[in-house]
């Protein structure tokens, strides 16, 4: 069995796949490997799984592959609904608004409100990195910009990991990135966290306020969390699909796995296939509004 991660190593999808794979290997009684196939905001790896007919290839999909990309492009190399069978939602993934500590210190920024003040008072001064034009890390920032009228110059990278590297070195001032990706750097003091993008604080960072509560009136209700879920090609026969759904959901209630995912910054879900399908529908409506606000349209 192969779990394709359509993003580079180190992100939330990659982390979820690598922690889930050993549990599936034990329960299914066969090797389960993780294969990173990054490119085009997840389209390349997703298209590969959509066309797989070997019965042993899965996708660790995300809000990007199954919601945002279809909203941005009319020419996707796969259909997120017709080409895939949902297996289970693995977890939700808050993003964190982080700054390079040196950049923050030079501007006197220690909070979301102070960032908004600096970005509106000094147009063109602050650079915002993202994992690519139209990526979840980009749209979280675009929503922030639209609501606050903050002047943030957007620089899209080939991946969120590449963007984060430049925030760490100070080439870029700030970005919105997945909690699992930034958590080691937060613990090491290499990044300054300003706010988490979920409506509730993260249990793993209980002292970090949400953007919603720390950003003032303009950011009331701000929410831009992501999620990761396991999908199979639609061609997978019903019997092995049903077994896979059972085993994946059972793996996600194993205490050791739940603890490792939680400590890495994911809120573990382990829901049914039907719940994942319903989530895709609900998220499509929500993110359509964000895409409309951002004005982004990427035909690729």
How would you describe the overall organization of this protein?
The chain is 44% helix and 20% strand. It has 300 residues and is of the alpha/beta class. The chain has two domains: 2-93 and 225-294, D-Maltodextrin-Binding Protein, domain 2 (3-Layer(aba) Sandwich), CATH 3.40.190; 95-219, D-Maltodextrin-Binding Protein, domain 2. The strands form two sheets. It has a six-stranded mixed sheet with strand order 2-1-3-10-4-11, sandwiched between helices. The longest helix is centred in the last third of the chain and has 22 residues, at 273-294. It starts with a strand and ends in a 6-residue tail after the last helix.
CATH superfamily of the largest domain: Bordetella uptake gene, domain 1
What percentage of the residues does DSSP assign to strands (E)? 15-25%
CATH topology of the largest domain: D-Maltodextrin-Binding Protein, domain 2
Q: What is the chain-wise order of helices and strands?
A: EHEHEHEEHHEHEHEHEHEHHEH
Helix tally? 12
**First and last CA, distance:** 29 Å
Return the average pLDDT rounded to an integer.
Answer: 92
Gyration radius, in Å: 19 Å
CATH C-level of the largest domain = Alpha Beta
**SS elements, strand count:** 11
How many domain regions? 2
**CATH architectural label of the largest domain:** 3-Layer(aba) Sandwich
Strand order of the largest sheet: 2-1-3-10-4-11
Tell me roughly what share of residues is in helical segments.
Answer: 40-55%
InterPro entries: BUG, Bug_dom1
Family: Belongs to the UPF0065 (bug) family.
Pfam families: TctC
Protein name: Bug family tripartite tricarboxylate transporter substrate binding protein
